[in-house]
Hints:
- Helices cover 0% and strands 53% of the residues.
- It has strands at 4-7, 10-12, 18-24, 31-39, 46-52, 57-59, 67-72, 77-82, 91-99, 105-107, 111-115.
Amino acid sequence: xxxxxxxxxxxxxxxxxxxxxxxxxxxxxxxxxxxxxxxxxxxxxxxxxxxxxxxxxxxxxxxxxxxxxxxxxxxxxxxxxxxxxxxxxxxxxxxxxxxxxxxxxxxxxxxxxxxxx
Length: 117
């Protein structure tokens, strides 16, 4: 079974930074795409950032220039660096990995990010 474990959420003031981590239970090379999604109360889950195994990345317009998705192959971890955070970034953030083995997109349990003064 494929599992994704997120960490790094918390409470931060507007303008602050957080880094989220996602550690899959399989080698990171077994996913052809990994990404971060978020869901705010009363809203649909939306893509924040994604990266393919080939190195291409994609960002939501609302986070371009502020968020960066990256991976550390040695640590088998995907990161989401979030800078210049805004109250509207408040949401539960989910890691997603699309697995080569069965083509399924697996989800982590989510981590809460709250941006508030």
